[in-house]
Amino acid sequence: MVKNVDHSVKKLVVARDYWRTKGGITQVGGREWQCQTGCIDENRNVQNDTFFKILPQQIGNRTWDHIEITVLYIDSDIDGAYVLRMNHTL
After folding, report:
1. Most buried among 49, 50, 60, 74, using CB within 10 Å?
2. pTM for the complete prediction?
3. Residue 44: pLDDT over 80
């Protein structure tokens, strides 16, 4: 869930990526969700409960020690965007 999205946002992109960083950097799983219309609800939230559910199956038994979550807010067709990036290494 992404909360308090301004109504000026024309496109929202959310990515979750899982990495193994020990012994060389390798992506072990990830997905990117995009929405351009009908994403923001009446409370200014965006929620998709199903898109990322496949990640545990995609990752399987592979080990990972780093996660990145990126939210891209695009509010202009030309050059208006801002990004929120969160990452954590175990």
Report:
1. 74
2. 0.86
3. yes
